[in-house]
Amino acid sequence: MASAATLTALRAAARECQLAAPSFSDEQAAQGLAITDVLRACFLPEATWAQASSPLLRLPAELLAATILSRLDTRNLARLAATCRSLCRDALTPQPPPRQIGPMETELRRRAKARGLDVGSTLPEGATSWVACLLKRDRRDAQMRQAPLAVGREHNIFVDKGGRLLTCGCDDARLPTLGHAVDRDINRGNTIGSPTPVPSMQDRRIVSVATSNEHCLALSAEGEIYSWGSGDLGSLGHGDEGSRAVPCKIESLSCIVRIAVGLVRTSAAVDEKGHLFTWGRANFYVLENGGQEQFDGPSGLGYDLDAKIPCQLTPKRVDALLQDRVVGVALGYGFTLAVTDAGAVFSFGFSRGGGLGHGSMESVVLPWQITALVGTGRRFVAVAAGRCHALALTEEGELYGWGHKSANGHGREECTPQRVAALIGQRVKLVDARDSASSAVTEMGELFTWGSSSGWGSLGHRRQENTPKRVAGLSRVEVAAVAMGACHMLAADADGVVWAVGDRLALGLGILSSADITAVPTPVPTLRVRVLNSP
Length: 535
Description:
The protein has helices at 4-20, 26-43, 46-51, 61-67, 74-83, 103-114, 130-145, 184-187, 371-374, and strands spanning 149-151, 155-159, 165-170, 191-197, 206-211, 215-220, 225-229, 244-249, 256-261, 266-271, 276-281, 283-287, 293-298, 311-317, 326-331, 335-340, 345-349, 364-369, 380-385, 389-394, 399-403, 414-419, 428-434, 437-442, 447-451, 465-470, 479-484, 488-493, 497-503, 517-528. It is of the alpha+beta class. The protein has a four-stranded antiparallel β-sheet, with no helix packed on it. It is globular.
């Protein structure tokens, strides 16, 4: 057994190796492998050494985790797990207690803990391997955190493979959604036909974007949020209602891992601790016969504000969910959905068309758990919201929908969540919703869309579909990300190629006219976005 001093020195050497690894030459790498032969004699018995056919297994577990496993993304971890089963001890043979934990499981548990995920000590029902279970959860969590494209009515936002922020489409002085300072020589009168880098953001590495028709958010790798576009009702979170023509950092937020925008000038963010923050429009009003405004309901911010206060100008924490770790959020037309690490789904805000899922049309100010989803006995991992409908996805890939019949997946009104029958037998991994349309991507990369939209053919079908239907134009493509819009839709394949369908004006195909419609998914030239492939 090595002494404490030796272990301390080894840890220090492992840290140095981790920092220097990208610059190793082939000769240095060969020397490093020779060094492992010396190290193994200190830590591994000869019998174990003889069985270690892979050079990786010659490394002490600490060195293996610090120098190799910690540097791999989920896809490559999965590949390694499949080709080097000795790293996955729990997947070999039943072990007597106490159970031995292999290097792969140790690294995956470390990642889950760093993200604040509650892994637990009992395997989920039906699972046979901790490594497989943790790999799936790690990939799913990463997919939910990162959105490489977002769609507005007449603009798009992208994150390319290098983390650059790009936009295309058109805007004006009131709605500067492209994020470019006004320069008619560059923007052709505030119109950009192809995805173009946002000049002021070239020194930032972006991981996720979100947009409404009027304002935009971008999340950096450092957990900072940048917002631009219309600032009406405080939707940008800068403490005023002023618009921003270029992305500006929201100074009051840090360590953010998820972002979302709503259809009524609302925004939301989740930090690494699982705290939910919201800002923007606070209340809805209607005009009485006498012409006076009458309070009609909350807009889904999740906290009490005086009915006379029109908006929340800066991000405010939703304290009603402090006891729950939020891992996902979606904003609809005046209502909000939040999913927790425990798999529970909460909804709150303005009730229209049964979008809250509580079985009634009554609005809810504070977060309220959807009891119909509790009754399914399932753990939910993702949510999506449209104008008057919502979707929730289980850990097993089952999809539930409710709200207005146009896009809930059932073709009929549902005030409480019901499983989408058309997708039974499919394992869904991603969901999205916008206005009166919805989409689902399966584990096999098949894209299903349904609902209605302003642009003919923008869902990839030649007519409106009230229940999920596979997009035939992408039948040979493995879809890895999708973004819905009112007049067009974007989908990214496993290689990062973006496919566009709908109103040509905002598709990024280099066409500056809306006189025509692209009814068949068409690849956007010269663009590759940042996607997470399935392992």
